[in-house]
Amino acid sequence: MNKIAEVALNTFRESIREKILVVALLFGIILMGSSVLLSPLAVGAKQKIVMDVGLAAISIIGVLMAVFLGSTLLHKEVDKKAIYLVLSRPLSRSSFLAGKLAGIVIAIALVLVVMTVVMLGTIVLGKGIVRPAVLASVYLSFLETTVVCSIVMLFSTFTTPLLTSFFALCVFAAGSLSGDLKVFASKFGGEGMKLVTESLYYLLPNLKVFNLRHEAVHNLPFATGDILRATLYAAVYCAVALFFACSIFRRREFK
Amino acid sequence: MHVLNVDGIKKHFRSDMSLAKREVLRGVTFHAREGEVLGFLGPNGAGKTTTIKVILGLIKAHAGSVTIFDRPPGDPRAMARIGYLPEMPYFYPHLSLAEFLGFCGRMSGVGRTDLSGRIDKIVEMVDLTPHRAKRLKTFSKGMLQRAGLAQAILHDPDLLILDEPFSGLDPIGRKMVRDILVDLKKRGKTIFFSSHILSDMEALCDRVCIIRDGIIAKSVVLDDLLRMGEGTIEVTARGWQTEMLQGMQEYLESVRTTGGDAFLVVREQRFVRPVIERLFGGGAEVLAVVNRHRTLENLFLREVARPEARTSKEKKEEKLVFTGF
To answer: What global pTM score does this model have?
Structure first.
């Protein structure tokens, strides 16, 4: 466990020293800042715009960082052969991969925390109220980012960073629409199509369960049980993705 | 006791676009005894690094077996006792030297209380104390090589596996690494290292395995090598004529000419005098008479060097008048 934490800490250090992380953070903050400039256009809905843009920025930046860091960090380590130093020590490949994933997730969490503080500060300074749904929405965005990160890690164990990013973004897009897949399956197509779309529905992550933005912005009620279910869902999905990633990584040869 | 056993390992690779197999290791077998310094010598592409990767479990052999401290590659109990320096090491450039060594030490199971003192000692040993807080991305190639050796010995391993440890080092750095390895040898550590620098191998190794085309061509104990006969005597002459040399065939083992000079390898010591007399008698000039002791270089060249390894320029300049009478 200590060694997983060591790999995680090293990956975290590497991530936060990547310039792209600073760029992503600045981009997110500018995006949120722009919501303050836009708010006079919607009279009486200033806080809603700040929350809407802020929560969307947190989700997008989180996913983009997961794709970028997940696809490049492992590949760089293998490509530059730094991995030789780690794998020639008493550490299993699975522990290495788990540490790598944890390090990236912690680095992204740090960025999300900073962005959230900026967003909450903007809301409070604008004399708005920070409702629990806003915090719950940020938390779910973090879970969504973690799920995407585990999928990126899975792809990065066997393909190039470019293809990893492409596949991961495809899964993210399909996962965001996976609820519609089930509806599509029930309304259109024959048995074969139904089987395919239903299989995809269960295979792809249902990222809709991590979207509480609408409720947060419009002050709608939400069930705490949904948050717990989403947490469990994210944990199981990450564990399965990591299991397959480790199975592939254990067989991999470092020529 | 054998610390490292490599028995008949075979490995082939396939290129991405072709189904053709390229055999890299064709049954490599050797053993390293406890406390022994074993050199691993071979030309580029002979299979040295691939063998080391199989030993460390970074790649799997298609046949044969490897044990380290009687355990298979990758076993955490065996890996904890190994210190490894890769060829052309790339370390985490975002870390300072102290952070890097701290990471490596903790990964190898060194306790936090011991670690700081050990890092200070090792950094001083590899002469990088002023650079302790500097990021590795600012290091020169030689400094990275020394940092690599530091991480390999930090956790006081029983077996050191070093892939080209002298690569990229200046003469001072080479001497420093050689002194560290001598000290480790005195402390009873087993060292297995590959190198192209034969003088360093001669100075350090108890035994050398020569690998050629994926197979061990020769395994030799260096003390035995130095005891093998008196070597050969080579006479260098200028102003010679082919007929003059052909008239001395009975005394000579081989003759090689480059430019205007002829290098005559005399069959036995007692033939040196008649060879020199005939050269002077024929009006030739004797430039040098050298007694060449058998060295690792002789052995390596005999076992490994092939005519195609020489450059085309060398081939043009070099003409064999006659060999192997």
So the answer is: 0.80
